[in-house]
Write a structure and sequence with these properties.
heterodimer; A: about 250 residues; mainly alpha; B: about 270 residues; alpha/beta; 2 domains; four-stranded antiparallel sheet; about 25% strand; binds adenosine-5'-triphosphate; binds magnesium ion
Chain lengths: ~250, ~270
């Protein structure tokens, strides 16, 4: 319980520091580390594309297969399209991507920052008059803020594509039928609900990863411990946030 | 001969530093004179690194004052602090090179931020600094993970000297080097110190370094400086830890020929 409280305090402190740095950098845009951000973006965004496409494709396919298998008993095969469309765009797309980013990039952030701390690189930076939040953390979080929404969009498309293929091959639903039914089943709202969550997930994953990374002390064991904690906490928070968003959207009737 | 006459570069008074319940430094006072090489010794875990990290502002102090070049760091404004920070260079125990940057980028890193100079000039200065610490041009594009321990220390020294500091902090610069490499590094520090007129604060365990390049030595025990002065003062001290340190087996072997060794042998007999 005490630990959860401490985690919340650390999270809030990092968020506060980040906001201060954003304000400062916004007033002197020249100090923003563009090269570093682009570098991170390539790692957490561009290089994640293949695996995200593959996994979401498979998830979409499985959803469709299960849907068809069960709906067929009621002769309601066609509803599989509604299910896949709504589920993927509202929930599954963003959650799968967030979980993958937490496991793939969140852990990498923690391990990198942690080993930089172990080797006193962060101290060296500080003694040269640099702010580690500005130099190390801001570029990483900005990269996530850009990458996660894009990955969510791509992942959702890939999942729907997978669902459509299965619906065609396994359920005998023609792609034309799939598309026109999909257009009726979903609206811009459905899409927005999913996409609006993406940057929040990015922020949660990024902050948790950086907080954990900066907690690493001395030993390799500590590094391993905090990397694990980073992934577990980030995934937990992603799910909690998703639940909170679900309640919020239900209350405003979306 | 550097002496108190040159003025004080670092003045520490009644410094108290602790973590939680532990008091690591207890009312410690120390002067480092301008233009000298001060060797700082003490048992493992006594707080040598903590003192260095407190002076450069990485560890908060509980009480006491730290003045660097006459500026009280506890009361300095942000600008004064930054100006002071620019006047020192630090060599961390493991080098602390930025692992994602090449040797060239590491050395250029502080300059890129503080000096408004063209890329070509930056390039020339970086190469000059690397030559100064005895590295050849073929290492400039390597990453720290591709370097040996000795090379890492040299690059880190080049980076510490990038902004032409007046004071250099070295944390066990020769640890992990073979005796020949360590002697080379000692000579390098001495040469640079003399040509650039540096003030050097050096934490070390290496008796050879103490004998060959340190003008003065300060010893830490129980959170205080128990003795400070040239080698002769150390050798003459009656403090049990200093006697064990300088007159123990290793102390006798490291002492150079001449009065120091004679005194060492006499003390041990
Ligand atoms: N961040 C910290 N938090 C808590 N305790 C610390 C911290 N840093 C150092 N200490 C403690 O302070 C004491 C002095 O540590 P320090 O690293 O200064 O020793 P040292 O004299 O440099 O030893 P060595 O010669 O082995 O490097 C140790 O007991 C260490 O456990
Ligand atoms: Mg130490």
């Amino acid at each position: 319980m005490v630990e959860v409280g401490q985690d919340l305090v650390d999270f809030a402190r990092m968020l506060g520091e980040l906001i201060t740095v954003v304000v400062r950098v916004a007033s002197r845009p020249r100090t923003f580390r563009l090269t570093s951000t682009v570098n991170q973006l390539e790692r957490v965004g561009w290089r994640a594309v293949p695996i995200v496409l593959l996994i979401t494709f498979l998830i979409g396919s499985i959803l469709a297969q299960q849907g068809i298998f069960h709906f067929r008993k009621f002769g309601a095969d066609i509803y599989v399209i509604d299910m896949v469309g709504v589920l993927v765009l509202r929930e599954v797309g963003v959650i799968i991507v967030a979980v993958m980013v937490a496991g793939r990039s969140g852990s990498a952030y923690t391990a990198e920052l942690g080993s930089m701390r172990m080797r006193e690189e962060v101290d060296a930076l500080r003694t040269m008059g640099f702010d580690p939040t500005e130099v190390l953390i801001l570029p990483r979080i900005v990269a996530l803020l850009i990458a996660v929404p894009i990955l969510t969009f791509l992942g959702s498309m890939s999942a729907i594509y997978g669902g459509a293929l299965v619906a065609w091959g396994y359920g005998g639903i023609n792609p034309d039928v799939f598309l026109s039914r999909l257009k009726e089943a979903i609206s811009l709202d459905t899409f927005e609900v999913g996409m609006i969550k993406a940057p929040f997930m990015a922020l949660v994953i990024g902050i948790v990863a950086c907080v954990e990374g900066f907690k690493v002390e001395g030993s390799a064991e500590s590094l391993g411990l905090h990397t694990t904690a980073s992934v577990v906490k980030a995934i937990f928070l992603v799910i909690v946030f998703d639940g909170l968003f679900a309640m919020f959207f239900a209350s405003i009737g979306k | 001969m550097p002496a108190a006459a040159n003025g004080v570069a670092i003045r520490v008074r009644d410094l108290v530093v602790g973590f939680g319940g532990a008091r690591i430094l207890d009312q410690l006072s120390l002067d480092v004179f301008r233009g000298e090489v001060l060797g700082f010794v003490g048992g493992s875990g006594q707080g040598k690194s903590v003192l260095m990290r407190t002076i450069i502002g990485l560890v908060p102090k509980r009480e006491g004052t730290i003045e660097v070049s006459g500026v009280d760091l506890g009361r300095a404004s942000a600008e004064e602090r930054q100006a002071t920070e620019r006047r020192w260079g630090i060599l961390f125990q493991q080098g602390a090179l930025f692992s994602s940057l090449t040797v060239r980028q590491n050395v250029q890193f502080p300059m890129r931020e503080y000096l408004e100079i063209s890329d070509r000039l930056l390039e020339e200065i970086a190469v000059a600094k690397l030559e100064m610490v005895g590295l050849k041009a073929d290492v400039v594009d390597k990453f720290p993970s591709e370097l040996s321990g000795g090379m890492i220390k040299r690059v880190a020294l080049a980076r510490a000297l990038a902004l032409d500091p007046e004071i250099v902090f070295l944390d066990e610069p020769t640890s992990g080097l073979d005796p020949i490499g360590a002697a080379d590094f000692d000579n390098l520090i001495r040469t640079l110190q003399q040509t650039l007129g540096l003030t050097v604060f050096m934490v070390t365990h290496d008796l050879d370094s103490l004998y060959t390049i340190c003008d003065r030595i300060a010893a830490l025990a129980d959170g205080k400086v128990i003795a400070a002065g040239p080698m002769a003062t150390m050798l003459a001290s009656e403090h049990p830890w200093l006697k064990a340190y300088f007159h123990g087996q290793r102390g006798r072997l490291a002492g150079p020929a001449g009065p120091a060794r004679a005194m060492g042998a006499a003390g041990a007999a």
